User: Which sequence fits this backbone?
C-alpha cells in the first residue's frame, strides 16, 4: 500500500513538471535595432552582458562640394567608440571624436524592457546620461578660461517598441546642457525630441533613420535640426551602416546643438558606421 502511494505521488510530480514546462515564460524582446545606436542617437537596444562593441564612425564633407573635393570624400571627421554590456539592461561607453577633439562617455539603463509572456510590457523605457569634454586649445588663451567651460552634459529618455520582426520605432526626449554655449545667443539648456526607426528589408539588410527636432536653440541660418537616413548591412560579426546626414558631429552635444547644414539646400554628407562586437567575458545577469 505504501509503495503504491509512493508511485502515485511520483507520477503526480512528473505530471506537475510537465505542466510547468508548458507554462508560458516571460521573454524579453531582442534585436529591435542591430546596434546600441540608430545612426547618430542611442537606440533602445542593449549589448549582451560581457560584450564590447568597437565602433568606427566616419562622416565626410558636403556632397555639394563637387568633384574638386571628390564630393566630400577628401574631408572626413570620425569617432572611435567602445561600448560595454554589463547586464541585460545596463551598458556604458566612451569615445573620442575629431570634431572639436571631444572625449565623451555615457551610461544607459533600462528600468523597463519590452517583453512577452507573464508580466510583460509593451515597450522599452531606457535612460541615458552622458558627458562630453572639448579638448581644443582655448580660442583666446589670454582670457580667464575655466575647465568647466569645456564640459557639456546630456540626459535622455528612450521610449521604444519593436512592433514586428521588421518594424521598430522609438521617441527620445533629450536635454543637452552646455556649460559654455557654442553660440552666444543660444541657451545653455537645449531641449530636443528625437525620433528613430528601423524597417527590415531582408535577413541582413534594414533601412534606418533618426531625426532630432530641436525645440529651442535653433538660430535661423546658423544651425538646423539633424536628420540622418541609412542602410544597415550585416556581414557576419559586423554591422556596416551607410548613411547620409546634415550633421558633422557624432555625439549628442555635437549633433543636437551644432548641426550647421541644411537638407533643403542639399547640404548633406555621406558617412558610414562600422560596428564589431567582441565577447570579453561570460555574461552575467542575462535573465
Assistant:
Amino acid at each position: 500500500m505504501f509503495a503504491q502511494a509512493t508511485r502515485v505521488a511520483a507520477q503526480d510530480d512528473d505530471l506537475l513538471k510537465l505542466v510547468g514546462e508548458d507554462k508560458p515564460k516571460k521573454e524579453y524582446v531582442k534585436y529591435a535595432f542591430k546596434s546600441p545606436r540608430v545612426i547618430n542617437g542611442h537606440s533602445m537596444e542593449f549589448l549582451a552582458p560581457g560584450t564590447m562593441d568597437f565602433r568606427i564612425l566616419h562622416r565626410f564633407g558636403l556632397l555639394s562640394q563637387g568633384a574638386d573635393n571628390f564630393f566630400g570624400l577628401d574631408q572626413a571627421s570620425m569617432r572611435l567608440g567602445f561600448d560595454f554590456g554589463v547586464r541585460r539592461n545596463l551598458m556604458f561607453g566612451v569615445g573620442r571624436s575629431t570634431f572639436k577633439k571631444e572625449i565623451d562617455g555615457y551610461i544607459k539603463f533600462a528600468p523597463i524592457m519590452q517583453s512577452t509572456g507573464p508580466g510583460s510590457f509593451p515597450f522599452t523605457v531606457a535612460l541615458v546620461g552622458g558627458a562630453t569634454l572639448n579638448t581644443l586649445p582655448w580660442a583666446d588663451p589670454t582670457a580667464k578660461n575655466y575647465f568647466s567651460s569645456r564640459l557639456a552634459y546630456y540626459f535622455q529618455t528612450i521610449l521604444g517598441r519593436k512592433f514586428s520582426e521588421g518594424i521598430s520605432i522609438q521617441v527620445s526626449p533629450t536635454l543637452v546642457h552646455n556649460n559654455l554655449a557654442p553660440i552666444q545667443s543660444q541657451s545653455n539648456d537645449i531641449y530636443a525630441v528625437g525620433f528613430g526607426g528601423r524597417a527590415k528589408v531582408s535577413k541582413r539588410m534594414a533601412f534606418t533613420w533618426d531625426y532630432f527636432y530641436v525645440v529651442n536653440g535653433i538660430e535661423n541660418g546658423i544651425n538646423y535640426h539633424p536628420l540622418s537616413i541609412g542602410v544597415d548591412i550585416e556581414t557576419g560579426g559586423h554591422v556596416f551602416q551607410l548613411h547620409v546626414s546634415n550633421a558633422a558631429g557624432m555625439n549628442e552635444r555635437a549633433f543636437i546643438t551644432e548641426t550647421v547644414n541644411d537638407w533643403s539646400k542639399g547640404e548633406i554628407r555621406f558617412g558610414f558606421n562600422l560596428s564589431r562586437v567582441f565577447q570579453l567575458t561570460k555574461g552575467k545577469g542575462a535573465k
